[in-house]
Amino acid sequence: MKYCWKRLTSLAVLAIAIPYFLLDTVFATVAIPLSEWIAGLGAFARIHRWVLSLKPYPTLLLFLVPLIVLEPVKPLAAYLCTTPHATLGLSALVIAELIKLVLIERLFSVSRGKLMSIPAFAWVFGKYSAVKNCLTSLEAWQGALRWSRIVRDAARRMMLEAKRSMAGDDAREERGRWIPARADAGRRPRE
Q1: What pLDDT score does 21 carry?
Q2: What is the DSSP string of 5-56?
Q3: Are 54 and 114 spatial neighbours (Cβ–Cβ below 8 Å)?
Q4: Average pLDDT rounded to a whole number, residues 126-155
Q5: How many helices (H) and strands (E) does the chain have?
Q6: Which residues contact 169 (CB under 8 A, 6 or more apart)?
Q7: pTM, full prediction
Q8: Looking at per-residue confidence, does 189 or 105 come out higher?
């Protein structure tokens, strides 16, 4: 009976963990470039210096704030999606998840050394990385990744073709317009 209970608990944890990691990984594809862009803005240089001046445990507390504040939005958004407010639920999920991941990515990239100097954080991060690596190495995950790349590349090609065709239309319009020539356009000035 104890084995059965342990097995059911493991399945329940997996049923919660897999969608959680999938959602974080999907949003990370947008959040990481956005975080890098924010890092390049001069307005955040003072905040960057302040975070660097913190000791490890205050940095950990600052790192946990976005998790504590924004993580409860996921179950709330899931509830809203089951009601007639599905659009509000999806919007809340996307916005909260992006803000959370951007803040966490930025804080982690700035203070990784300090955070990893805390043994408990290093242990949790190691376990998190192991689970994430396990999920991303699955064949189903790799297949989904291939399809997402195919779709992204197709969308990029379509956008380039649309831009080219719009530029071509503009050029054709320019060539089709009648522009009066000046009488001295072909002559060279006398010296």
Answers
A1: 66
A2: HHHHHHHHHHHHHHHHHHHHHHHHHHHHHHHHHHHH-GGGHHHHHHHHHS-H
A3: yes
A4: 81
A5: 7, 0
A6: none
A7: 0.59
A8: 105
Do 127 and 69 form a contact (C-beta atoms < 8 A)? no
| pLDDT for residue 173 | 55
Residue 55 has pLDDT above 90, yes or no: yes
Q: Which two tokens stand for residue 68?
A: 């504590």
Between CA 149 and CA 139 the distance in angstroms is 15
Q: Where are the domains of the chain?
A: 2-117
Question: Is pLDDT above 80 for 7?
Answer: no
Closest by CA position to 77, among listed 92, 62, 64, 87: 92
- Do residues 121 and 60 lie in contact, with contact meaning Cβ atoms separated by under 8 Å? yes
Token pair belonging to 72: 């409860």
CA distance 123 to 82: 36
**Whose structure tokens read 């994430």?**
132
Q: How far apart are CA 125 and CA 113, in angstroms?
A: 12
Hey, what amino acid is at 137?
S
Q: Tell me the two tokens of residue 148.
A: 């997402």
